[in-house]
Design brief:
Mean pLDDT: 76
CATH class of the largest domain: Mainly Alpha
Shape: elongated
Helix content: 55-70%
Low-confidence stretches: 93-98, 307-336, 483-513
Structural class: mainly alpha
Number of strands: 0
Largest sheet: none
CATH topology of the largest domain: Growth Hormone, Chain: A
Number of domains: 2
Length: about 525
């Protein structure tokens, strides 16, 4: 037994390293336009090899001994190593990048992932699903063999059907993403996965249960493949090339690292609540991760993120930051996607957004639910062709720049002699044009530690509620538009007209900002 444990540990470690490296190599070898299909095909190959391996292994065991079956399995790994050696030489890392330790790369990957509004909920979902799947996997095979009494053949059939489902789900993922968008596909896949685990909890010996479990297993693994491919596509499109390895290491660490802890917890839980209670707990963990993902901005992700920019000379070479796309600058990603007019309902929400109102305040003022406001703001993002990482301040700037709404009125008790100094002007423009904190401080020419105090002082001086309100008042005061008095009204004349803000005040050199 110690030999088997050692071999299993070594094999599992090598498989994890191989999967992490294969995902990064795929990005380096594939053209960005075909990366989505290549990722889906890679997942499909994994599913096909799993299915073929299960049935081939069962056949070998039927005609020979287990030792010879293990020898054939070892030979398959040697073939994989030979195929890997045929991959062309990959591009060398950028000059001056330096060498870093694995721990430092994982730390940088975690930092980048947790700062990115799209990757952060994906990482948390990966950790939760890894834990839930680890709890279930610890006892699912034992439960099927002893409680449901399937036998080795029945277990092999179910596992083979599951592998076939994984193949189908991976192949179908690009089409589903194109039809419904990555957010809906990912949430639906993660939500369906625990639901299809319910037959395992209710199965009994005999009857049609083996066939039902095989169908449920195939559909469950199809959902898992679809979710895995979608997460990988989002991450590949969201991360710059030089950070692909680090974010992949982070994802692998979250999934593979959570499973041993989950298995250990499952053994403790099985003693206290029984195997059936342990399987139920794992299913509930998976359901909770699906709910958390639905409550995140991922559900508004209607298309894959735009390909990210490479690191420039102004970006730190050792730690690239979350991507600054065109939508972070308040403009459409491409000239082929012009900003489209807003409906009356969207104009009402957008008008309050540039006034710095929160979603809850907008809902109360318009007598609608916060869910409706969330939906309207996402529709506004779609009209502006802005992704989920675009800040509300950038949205406000884009709305006012394209004259889709009116600039807000100046607040009460506003000092008419106020005008920001050059440092304040840089900060207002940075809020209007950038979403990521690193890009804001770079544009404002300040340190990250000074950003909070500068922003607070600017809000106090402008009597603004938040950064979106600062940007809106920047248009009102002529800081972000040459002449706000000429700002034409939107097409919907039924919207309330703000008081004329008057001419833009002159620059006040005595201002504290």
């Amino acid at each position: 037994m110690p030999v088997l444990y050692t071999a299993a540990l070594a094999q599992g470690s090598v498989i994890v390293l191989h999967q992490a490296a294969a995902s990064v190599v795929l990005v380096q070898l594939t053209d960005p336009d075909t990366l989505q299909k290549a990722t889906a095909r890679q997942e499909a190959v994994l599913g096909a090899s799993s299915t073929i391996g299960l049935y081939l292994g069962s056949g070998i065991l039927a005609v020979t001994t287990a030792a010879r079956a293990l020898a054939v399995d070892s030979f398959s790994y040697l073939m994989s190593a030979w195929c890997t050696s045929r991959i062309p030489t990959l591009p060398a890392p950028p000059a001056g990048a330096g060498r870093t330790t694995l721990t430092a790369e994982i730390r940088d990957g975690l930092r980048y992932t947790l700062r990115d509004p799209v990757l952060r909920p994906l990482a948390l979902c990966l950790g939760a699903t890894g834990a839930g799947a680890g709890v279930i996997t610890a006892f699912s095979a034992w439960y099927l063999l002893t409680v449901v009494q399937l036998g080795p053949t029945g277990l092999g059939v179910i596992m083979g059907a599951s592998g076939t489902g994984y193949l189908a789900g991976a192949l179908a993922s690009p089409t589903l993403i194109r039809w419904f968008g990555p957010g809906k596909v990912l949430i639906a896949s993660v939500a369906v996965y625990p639901l299809l685990g319910v037959p395992l909890l209710t199965a009994r010996p005999g009857g049609l249960w083996p066939a039902g479990l095989a169908v449920a297993g195939a559909l469950q693994l199809a959902a898992a493949a679809c979710a895995t491919a979608t997460v990988r596509m989002i991450r590949q499109r969201r991360c710059p090339p030089e950070l692909q390895a680090r974010t992949q290491q982070t994802a692998t660490w979250l999934v593979a690292g959570s499973r041993p802890l989950a298995a250990l917890g499952a053994s403790v839980l099985a003693v206290a609540a029984g195997v059936w209670g342990t399987l139920l707990t794992g299913t509930l963990i998976l359901a909770a991760s699906a709910l958390a993902l639905w409550l995140s901005p991922i559900r508004h992700l209607n298309r894959l993120p735009d390909t990210t920019r490479p690191v420039t000379e102004s970006s730190p070479a050792h730690m690239p930051q979350p991507p600054t796309t065109d939508t972070d600058k308040g403009v459409a990603p491409t000239t082929a996607a012009p900003v489209t007019p807003l409906s009356k309902a969207l104009q009402s929400v957008a008008q309050l957004l540039v006034q710095g109102k929160t979603n809850a305040q907008i809902a109360r003022q318009l007598w609608v639910s916060t869910h409706t406001v969330d939906s309207h703001i996402q529709s506004i993002r779609d009209h502006l062709h802005a992704d989920t990482g675009c800040s509300r301040a950038v949205l406000a700037h884009t709305l006012l720049k394209h004259r889709l709404v009116r600039p807000p009125a100046v607040p009460e008790l506003f000092d008419p002699s106020f005008a920001p100094n050059p440092e304040g002007l840089l900060l207002v423009r940075a809020f209007a044009e950038h979403s990521a904190t690193t890009d804001i401080v770079r544009a404002a020419q300040i340190t990250p530690g000074a950003l909070r105090n500068r922003a607070h002082n600017l809000k106090l001086a402008m009597r603004a509620d938040n950064r979106a309100h600062i940007v809106g008042l920047g248009h009102t005061l002529g800081i972000l538009t040459p002449d706000p008095a000429r700002h034409p009204a939107p097409a919907d004349a039924s919207l309330p007209v703000n008081p004329d803000p008057g001419p833009a005040p002159l620059l006040n050199p005595k201002s504290n900002l």
